[in-house]
Design a protein that fits this description.
This protein starts with 9 loop residues before the first helix and ends in a 13-residue tail after the last strand. It is an alpha+beta fold. The protein is globular and about 65 Å long. Strand 7 and strand 8 form a beta hairpin. The chain is 34% helix and 26% strand. The strands form two sheets. A six-stranded mixed beta sheet has the order 2-4-6-8-7-5. It has two domains: 41 residues; 159 residues, 2-Layer Sandwich (Heat Shock Protein 90), CATH 3.30.565. Helix 2 packs parallel to helix 3 and helix 3 packs antiparallel against helix 4. The structure holds adenosine-5'-triphosphate (ATP) and magnesium ion. The site of magnesium ion (MG) has 4 residues, from helix 3.
Length: 215
């Protein structure tokens, strides 16, 4: 209504536009949560994870502001998976926001991507089922407060949060997406040192990219 009123005050107009953008993105998110829960499903297609990260860099940097510097270490070749951009964006958003929240004053977030070959499940905390095969991964590592051992088994549960204004939905979304894409998630964390959360998604079959020697 503010926008329709053709207000001449530039500040009010700018704020009204921000409200409109936020509302539209809230609609997108709600539809997306409904899709996930009611399995309405998305049109998945082959896409390159690296391109998704590159498209998100500006917004992720802005989200972190001066609290955290993000370093990007992207795999040199294409990392094709069968997914939708929205899924990859949600993974990046939620993990980066959590990392930023875990950093109280100043810290570093490293977002990296690569491809690995798994024969057996990794030895760290795993959420989801690991089938042998090649996976592309998105890893978000931070130098934040870390996750206490006694809550590690709770973090994937919807509504679990330790934050005053948290909803406890972010990681649940990430884990649900990983499962939907036949992938899995690993969590490594040390209190006062930081956390590394890695989302593994099966590599699209027709792509030949050499795996790393390590996970
Ligand atoms: N990188 C991290 N460092 C430290 N703790 C984390 C990290 N990521 C998640 N957590 C812990 O896991 C909990 C659940 O995370 P989740 O993203 O699901 O919810 P939230 O961030 O609390 O709320 P929301 O994402 O809905 O705004 C967090 O409240 C926090 O305690
Ligand atoms: Mg969160």
């Amino acid at each position: 209504m503010l926008l329709m009123a053709k207000n001449t005050d530039a500040l009010i107009n700018a704020r009204a536009k921000t409200i409109k953008t936020a509302s539209l993105s809230a609609i997108k998110l709600m539809n997306y949560i409904l899709d996930l829960n009611y399995k309405r499903g998305f049109d998945k297609r082959k896409l390159d994870i690296n391109l998704c990260v590159e498209n998100m860099q500006d917004i992720l940097d802005k989200i972190c502001g001066s609290r955290a510097t993000i370093y990007y270490e992207l795999y040199s070749g294409p990392l094709n998976v069968i997914a939708t951009e929205l899924y990859i964006e949600e993974i990046l958003f939620n993990l980066t926001i959590n990392s930023k929240d875990a950093i109280s004053t100043e810290g570093i977030i490293t977002i990296s991507t690569a491809v690995v070959n798994y024969e057996t499940a990794p030895t760290v905390s795993v959420f989801g089922t690991v089938n042998a095969g090649r996976y592309c991964y998105i890893k978000v590592k931070d130098t934040g407060c870390g996750i206490a051992k006694n809550i590690m088994s709770l973090i994937h549960k919807p509504t679990f949060t330790t934050k005053k204004n948290g909803n406890g939905i972010g990681l649940h979304i990430v884990f649900t997406i990983a499962k939907e894409l036949s992938g899995f998630v690993t969590v490594e964390s040390a209190e006062q040192k930081g956390t590394t959360i890695t989302v593994y998604i099966p590599q699209a079959a027709d792509v030949v990219a050499p795996p790393c020697s390590c996970a």
